[in-house]
Write a structure and sequence with these properties.
Shape: elongated
Distance between the termini: 11 Å
Helix content: 25-40%
Number of strands: 6
Oligomer: single chain
């Protein structure tokens, strides 16, 4: 699952992040991604850009998300001898503070471009 941020007037200008990273980055802009879609109106772009500047230059460190790993376990019976197999089921590498900073800068660039084009940004 992922969330795409896209300039409405130029849809090939977009960013795509997995849900957890998008929720973290957009949350720093005071945007709740719970609905799964939304819009940053042109009039709100300055506020979003300001929120990015505050996050990047604020007194508090940027948040991060730890890696998540899940394994699946199965028991296979071969000739009366049970064998336990463990396989990777899910891996989310997480995001460190540098990754959050990089994504905030990417979103800032997208917001600046949308502002220049006098366009809203949709996310879904």
């Amino acid at each position: 699952m992922s969330i795409t941020l896209q300039i409405d007037r130029q849809q090939d200008m977009n960013l795509n992040y997995n849900n957890r990273n998008a929720a973290l980055v957009l949350g720093l802009l005071n945007i709740d991604v719970e609905a799964g879609y939304g819009r940053i109106a042109l009039a709100e772009i300055p506020n979003a850009r300001r929120a990015i500047l505050v996050a990047l230059n604020g007194a508090t460190p940027l948040p991060s998300v730890d890696q998540e790993v899940e394994f699946a376990t199965s028991v296979v019976n071969q000739g009366g001898m049970p064998t336990i197999h463990r396989s990777l089921r899910y891996l989310d590498p997480g995001i460190d503070q540098e990754g959050v900073e990089r994504r905030l800068r990417e979103v800032a660039t997208l917001l600046a471009r949308a502002s220049e084009m006098q366009s809203d940004i949709s996310w879904y």
